[in-house]
Fold:
Amino acid sequence: MPDPTDSLLSVWYISTRLKSYLPEEIPDSARFTSNVPDSVLVQRLEKMNSFISLPFNETVKNYMILYSEKSREKMEHILGVSNYYMPIFEEILDRYGLPLELKYMAIIESAMNPLARSRAGATGMWQFMYNTAKSYNLKITSYVDERLDIEKAADAAARYLQDAYNTFGDWALAICSYNCGSGNVNKAIQRSGKRDFWSIYPYLPRETRGYVPAFVGAMYAMTYYKEYGLVPEPVALPHYTDTIMVNKNLHFKQINELTGIPVETLRELNPQYTHDIVPGNEGPYVLKIPYQYTNSFISVEDSVYTHKADSLLSAKVLTSVSSGGDGGSIRYLIKNGDTLGSIARRYHVTVSNLKRWNNLKSDSIRAGRYLTIYQ
Structure:
């Protein structure tokens, strides 16, 4: 007979899994159960030789089971996209001499979704708030939000973690501060009188307590996913890309129509350009394209900038984009059941603005398409 607590916990998980990014906040009283004995879980943790202490307790066990057994669909997607993103993160972390395992933080921050956005406004795979992003030199303009730039955001996260470790001298505390800020960690240290995660655990904000255990759970699942029969989901992102330096304004549709690169592929590789426009007139910007299209791009490079520029990059279009101001913008994927009214309420904007920003003539929208929303 299944454990009734585990059954109730599964109901809780199913009801919340679509409402938030990993890590889900597991109730303190909840307990997951697994067919894998505790002794095996402990042995596997020890074999991981982690750069942080990995004590085994009920909280850590819950997150180990959550990531490896209760989040199968989500973890298989993460495993698929990690083949593309994790080597990028490893290279950046190695550049700063940081533990490569820190790459797994992107899982608990955003489930490795480069367009992730929290209710509080944290944006991108590494979930930077506006002010923190600015303090780590991430550019946020009407055209560009570098919180969505895979490499630049990861570089900023690495610098933040380096600063946090220099402050606390402990990786668990540095990781913890990434979620709640160094101020809250310092308050917890002062209240507990100690400087280790499990001692300050009761004094941390409730939503932060599961952060380090979730990190351990994600790292465990990524290490032992084969033992649980998890299969990486096939993804369309190319393994090899080339970079083009852009020094003039360039629209993704110009590239698409002259080279054949799908606009969606350009968006996936360059999510920082929030209006499908590389603002090269402001200065040099990097554009990523699939490697197999490099020769095609070079062959049309002289003409791609002028192709339909009068319409795609008209003064009216550029003025409309610039009117968004220096607050950044997001691309919202329309889901079944969405209406302009519900989306406007969610992001505290008006329906008329949504229609103006997206050149909509009516209130009709279609699932699967994107809306641009200014902060």
